[in-house]
Amino acid sequence: MEARRLAAACEGPNCQMPGVKKQPARGAKPAPIKRRDRERTRQEILDIAFEEFAENGLSGGNTDAIAARANITKRLIFYYFNSKEDLFTAVLEMAYAEMRAAEEGLHLEALEPEAAIRRLAEFTFDFHQAHPQFVRLVSIENIHRGRHMASSRRLKEMTQPSISQIAKVLERGAACGAIRPGIDPIELHMTLNALSFFAVANRHTFEAQFAWDMSSPKAKAQRRAEIADLLWRCVRKD
């Protein structure tokens, strides 16, 4: 275990393991020992793995390719992440954490109920449009029946603030008579994500089948407005 720890902390041509002396060339000064920053290396692996898995899936994702792009050994990947499956789970956690962190910046509590619902819809649509790799990664996890998400406590915990934020908007809207009571925040979250997700995940097949523009700025703006209208009509009290 100690040898493994030392090997991970020190790598490269200038790294020197304890008990192993490297003789410098005649007349040359000994090269300084270079040590990797652990967190920076781990994050670099995650960033590259995110692109690899989003493009090629879990089965097609290649840890050799990830190691080559990160300029590290494959052994170092498995030092930080015990297996390819664990690496994929960590990538999912990172991707969802980015979305949840962005959601926290919406401050829906400061908006009137209708404005809050529309802001939530617009944000969700914009996030999916700006992160097609996130959409592909979620689709891949669904192919694997969500088993990595099911095993991650972190992924389960990070959903709570998102649902709580929606629940508070619904409660506040119901209290002032703007939103009909009894709406399940998880159901609303699912409806919104289904609408926004489809606009990215099914764009190419829908365009090919119906010859319908879903990619131009004009088409995206129209769809964005339509989803915001749909969500508000879904929750408002007539």
TrEMBL record:
Annotated stretches, region: Disordered: 17-38
Organism from which the protein derives: Bradyrhizobium iriomotense
Keywords: DNA-binding
Record flagged with keyword Cell inner membrane: no
Name the UniProt record assigns to this protein: TetR family transcriptional regulator
InterPro entries in the cross-refs: Homeodomain-like_sf, HTH-type_TetR-like_transc_reg, HTH_TetR, NicS_C, Tet_transcr_reg_TetR-rel_C_sf
Stretches assigned to the HTH tetR-type domain: 39-99
Pfam family, one: TetR_C_29
Top-level taxon: Bacteria
The entry's DNA-binding region: 62-81
